[in-house]
Write a structure and sequence with these properties.
Rossmann fold, single chain, DNA polymerase, domain 1, alpha/beta, 8 strands, 8-stranded mixed sheet
Length: 348
């Protein structure tokens, strides 16, 4: 059977689940806000059922400063505090992931992006098809022949498969030049300023003409457009710094090889009991059987109809992309071994 590796951007997908249920105010009988947990479970259920991965892991950021914070203390300094439902929900999501038999991975000093980038880069060498599951456009810089991206489609529901041509349609450049475009545009959400006066439409044109950011800066004086010329000349150091900040590392040390993340299915009993505690009726019955009961909180019965997506979450859909389906550790890498060991994906 062909090996298929899936790496999920845990924090990004958890935030997406948070926004999808932000107005639902779902709680179980314990008073736990369960919207993010349910949203994440829904996404994971679809991923496992539709794609049947042979290998899978969920990568997380930690609370520790990263090498990017060391390079720039203002990195992400504009971010608001984490919402309360995520502060309580993320540990529960990680617990749930273990019951699915899937490993959580994280490493102080690095972001999930860098862990995913390192693992898929190694898998690419062995011609393993690797899928990065994330709404974050920055991951498009990693797309290659065997490295693809699954991006939530906020307009039509489901996921979009993004290959090299999909990256070209989204950014107007191929993956190899995405970091150059991102450096010029900057990233307001991460507090990374780019080149003022050059936006999403202008940046790809600059890179298309000069090939790289460095070459564009070197030849800036010859550019006819005043705003572009002066922007590159006056903010060259800022742009070069931005390029360094947006580049995903693919050589993080002490990260397990992709072979380490083989998936053998969920622990149905533990997963079912977890869903019973969360009071997700349909998911409880899927894993514990039709006679399993749930509590009386506002979460009760919420999953009698699977909710796929929320249009309130920020995201843009690029052309040339194929719709796939409708709708805290110390200095070393922290790998939580999944509880796995029962049938693949639970009861049918």
């Amino acid at each position: 059977m062909k090996k298929k590796l899936f790496l999920v951007d845990g924090m990004a997908m958890a935030y997406r689940a948070h926004f999808a249920f932000i107005n639902s105010r779902l709680r179980n009988s314990e008073g736990i806000m369960t919207g993010p947990v349910y949203g994440f479970a829904n996404q994971l259920e679809r991923l496992l059922e539709e794609h049947k991965p042979s290998h899978i892991a969920v990568a997380w950021d930690t609370h520790a400063p990263t090498f990017r914070h060391e390079k720039d203390p203002q990195y992400k300094a504009n971010r608001p505090p984490q919402p309360e439902d995520l502060r309580t929900g993320i540990p529960l999501i990680k617990e749930m992931i273990e019951y699915y038999g899937i490993q959580n991975i994280e490493k102080d000093g690095f972001e999930a992006d860098d862990l995913i980038g390192t693992i898929v880069n190694r898998a690419q060498i062995e011609h393993v098809d690797a899928y990065m599951v994330t709404p974050d456009k920055d991951f498009m810089q990693l797309v290659k022949d065997h490295i693809l991206m699954l991006k939530p489609d906020n307009q039509n529901g489901g996921m979009i498969l993004i290959d090299r041509e999909g990256v070209l349609d989204y950014f107007q450049v191929y993956p190899e030049q995405v970091v150059d475009v991102l450096a010029i545009i900057g990233d307001a959400s991460d507090n990374i300023p780019g080149v003022p006066g050059i936006g999403k439409k202008g940046a790809p044109k600059v890179i298309e003409e000069f090939g790289t950011l460095e070459n564009a800066i070197e030849n800036a004086a010859s550019i006819k457009a005043k705003r572009v010329r002066e922007g590159l000349m006056n903010f060259s150091e800022q742009a070069l710094h931005a390029k360094e900040m947006v580049t995903i590392h693919t050589d993080v040390e002490d990260v397990p090889d992709w072979h380490h993340f083989d998936w053998h299915g969920s622990d149905d009993e533990k997963l079912g009991l977890f869903f019973q505690r969360m009071e997700f009726r349909t998911l409880t019955r899927k894993y514990l059987g039709e006679d399993a009961g749930v509590g009386t909180g506002s979460s009760r019965g919420i999953d009698s109809k699977i909710v796929s997506n929320s249009r309130s979450v920020e995201g843009a859909r690029g052309g040339g992309q194929q719709s796939l389906f409708g709708d805290s550790g110390g200095g070393g890498l922290n790998v939580n071994e999944g509880s796995g060991g029962k049938s693949g994906g639970g009861k049918s």
